[in-house]
Design brief:
about 450 residues, mainly alpha, Growth Hormone, Chain: A, globular
Length: about 450
Amino acid sequence: MSPLPPQPARVDAPVAPSSAPATSLRGHRSFQAYWLGEATALAGSSVSAVALPVIAAMELDATPGQVSTLASAMMAPAFLLALPAGVAGDRFSKKQLMVGTDLAAAAVVTVVPACWATGTLSMPVLYCVALLLGALTVLHQAAAIAIVPELVEPELLPDANAQAMAAFAVAGSAGTYVGTAAVSLLGAARCLLLDSASYLISAWCASRISTVHAAQHSAVPRIGMITSIREGMAHVLRDPLQRPLVLTMAYHAFAEAIVTTYFAYYLLTELDYGDIGLGLVLGAVGVGSLVGALVASRMVRRLGPGMVLLVGFAAYPICGIPLLLARSGHGWLITLVAASAVKAVAVTAAASTQRSLRQQLCPSHLQSRVQQTSVWLVAGARLLATLAAGAVAAVVGVWAALLTGTVLLLSPVALLWISPVRQLQVMPGATTALPAQISRPMEGGGDRVH
């Protein structure tokens, strides 16, 4: 591990720009190691996302109920453990958490091919693997997302998040395609060895990281888990900029999950586009996500973060209208492909922007807890939305569920429109003045939460 630079680290406010701030991420070895490791692990996880359902359905003859249970086991840790993981991310070294969770995940994944080789693989084994991987992923992400402000200067955060999301978009798509081919060539169980190897590579890359602005954990008094969670949530709820950002993400997640619950089902059954049509639409989403990540920083500099967020969230319901009007046929399929690509560009640019904005607004010792507060709300919203989508579809049909989700996607746009976030013209770095009517709780002595 390379030694830390001698710059002092502040724990009570976002890190100020250095006297000679960097102007580019080119040649930034720690950040390159970071995104390379995270992208590699994501590609491996995408392989597992293809292989695990195949193992369950094709090799273990799982029932629909068992497949649903397996999916729930993958999702549940994000809701159950997000807040405690945020405390751990702020309390311990983020770099060590990343390395440790990667190594543990590599070991957990190998259980499936080992049990398959010995003839002991069963659905309970898959449930346990899914739960453990989900828990390790939550803990890893709590550290991995919050460590970015410790790697780069504040003025480079938008570029750093945009480049990372671009790499993740490529890795996720490549992993899915590689996983599909590898399942056919190697078998589903053996494919998980690729995922295990990706975690080992990610752990090695994380060990090469050297933080520029490391939070001094020893300077933060050790308080109870519940109190620590409340401190992070209180910071979000009291901050006039972060509160609407986090609530917008939660509202968006709820409405989006209603749509995505039946998106593929509707394309395959009602519109009869088949696997090729679905693949074209999903491929357009991947390409759009990559483009959105690449242009996010440029859009922020030209339009301002407030407008990028507003346009990004507004694009989702607008680009969802063609799905409601679509009929079978190549013309409508082309329209859906184009709409999906445009939507992905706008939404990814907005997602990158809101992450950078929240990271710049948050004190270093609260980064993980604030991030995981958002993760917890989003995960909970998605779980509720899945139930709501099923109820609506059961009563009035799948198209009505899609319409409901699309209409509800207007709520995040309205929330941003009436919030002070819309007025932001530049990223509020340490030396940037906020709009005059915004009074930040962090800056008032009586309302400090840290």
